[in-house]
Amino acid sequence: MNVLGQSTSSLIIQDYECFFGLACREALEEYAKDVEKLAFKLLGLVALSLGLPENRFHGFFEDQTSFIRLNHYPPCPVPQLALGVGRHKDGGALTILAQDDVGGLEVKRKTDGEWIRVKPTPDAFIINIGDIIQVPLSKSQYDKMI
Q1: Which of 18, 37, 64, 107 is surrounded by the most beta carbons within 10 Å?
Q2: Structural domain includes residue 115
């Protein structure tokens, strides 16, 4: 889920109702609200870690766009041949990623540029600080992996 811009998550979620039914839509809307609360809590923690007031960034994201992307990649016997979301930088403020046990996320190690797999952790989120947070901040404090 990316946090940035103008709210359109309800429009996107409506599309899922056509395919999966009202119960799925309601579950996705509840999930979106909960992850958005988490995103604002994380923004507050970033601000505090920089010596700023906890709500310093909140005003920038009050009317944001939250994207929920549901990707499912079954295990592939030859991972090098699997197609998925390619290598990229996250342009938003935060990406909150829930991985399943299949995994597949890789990050680029800064020291040698090698791509390494991120081991999935059950019942946990992976948080990526995107370009919107990175650009104005000190590179030494919040430098991205990719």
Answers
A1: 64
A2: yes
